[in-house]
Amino acid sequence: MPLPIFLLAVLTTALASAPLIAFLTLGWYVRYREFENSLKCGALSAYLQRFWSKWLIDAINGAFPGTLATTVPSTSAAASQVDIKEWCSQSEDNSQLCDQLFSYIYHQQYGLVPFVPPYCILVVMVYAASAIVGWVYMCAPCNSPTAATCLFGLNVPGILAAFGGAYFFVASDSVLAVRRRALNVSDIYWYSLRLLLAIPFALIAGAIDSAGTGATLLTFVIATLPLGEIVKQVRRAAAKNFTTFEAAKDRPDQLLNLSGVTKSVSQALQVEGIESIEQVASADPVTLSIRTGFPFRFTLRLGSQAIVRRHLGDNAAKLLPIGLGDVVPIYLLVQAMDGKGPPPIALPPGAVPEPDEKDLVITNAAALLFPSDVPAQREAIVKMKFRQIAAEEYTLMLAKITPLDPAL
Q: Under the phi-then-psi rule, with left for phi > 0, alpha for psi from -120 to 50, and beta for the rest, what region is 94?
């Protein structure tokens, strides 16, 4: 290989690899510490009870996944060793076991090892693409740079635009993902696919502009677009006969009803398959935060609002002015209403806000939710709804994760 081509390939490969190396050596650990700082003691136990109960029971029974990954005890065996009423309290008393289990789950779901295969593939793809660009450029005749080459009949500007646009997308998107600490294994596979599709995109652009006057510019523009945007435009072009009836069936975005959700946030959730409020309320907040790149506390607040809307529907927005749009304030109100006092969390005096006139708060909330109903009837309904919200597993988990933040 000629030295200029080799230097070009090495330089572009190093530039594409630098953000990924920085993430795997620093950013990944910072992200892991973020979850560790939020999930401590009882909060971690509550999270494992909510989303990883089977593994937690197995760990309490001695079948820790890190040591017995190939031998998983049956459900009946787990139930015979630990009473279903006792494993929750045992997990709360054994914080070290919960820490080890969470570390194992996190490394299995989002560890460093799964990044190795796609990273190697991406390095090979970037090196090969750079070598192709250098070889085509050096072999092209100087007196006719726009002449067709042996690479599917494309000219040199078209090939440079295709690979340049693809490389621009890979480099910019990877840097953005590393800055957000939201780089996933699937993203690196997408980068390799984008480089692989550079030549087909150039052929498509050449077919669209057969005269060749704007094919180079069109190739570069297509290559820099995200694959999701390209698929959207293709579907839009294929749906020219979209009828009014089909348009009416397309429901509005439910996620925009949540406080703090913008169109970009909603699109990020929809990419991960989260399209409804019910899905937000049911999703694992750690996994969802990893896949979307959202801060963990923000993801928890989305789930908190989704729980309230699950029980109250669109009327939940009416409770925002009085601070009951999230589950933790409702949980604290129910605790005070039932005379149970503060939640079973070791906190300094006055750390948890307690309502002074809880009956007036219930009356106000009932008037906002059901203004046309009989006062006694609507207050009874609101109390029932609030108790249902307070009894949710997600609510109990958030009450331990965010006891000092009433906004959550």
A: beta
Q: Is the domain of 302 the same as that of 364? A: yes
Tokens 């348009």 correspond to 247
47 in Cβ contact with 286 (< 8 Å): yes
pLDDT digits (tens, 9 = 90+) for 211-242: 556 777 877 887 787 776 666 666 666 655 55
DSSP annotation of 148: B
pLDDT in tens, 84-96: 567 777 877 788 8
Query: Which range of residues forms the domain containing residue 362?
Result: 257-401
| Residue that has been written with the tokens 């089977």 in this structure | 54
Radius of gyration of the chain (CA): 28
Closest of 294, 285, 291, 292 to residue 110, by C-alpha: 291
Residues 151, 15, single domain; the answer is yes
Q: What is the pTM assigned to this prediction?
A: 0.76
Q: Quickly state the pLDDT bin for 407 (edges 50, 70, 90).
A: very low
Closest CA to 42 of 103, 94, 101, 107: 94
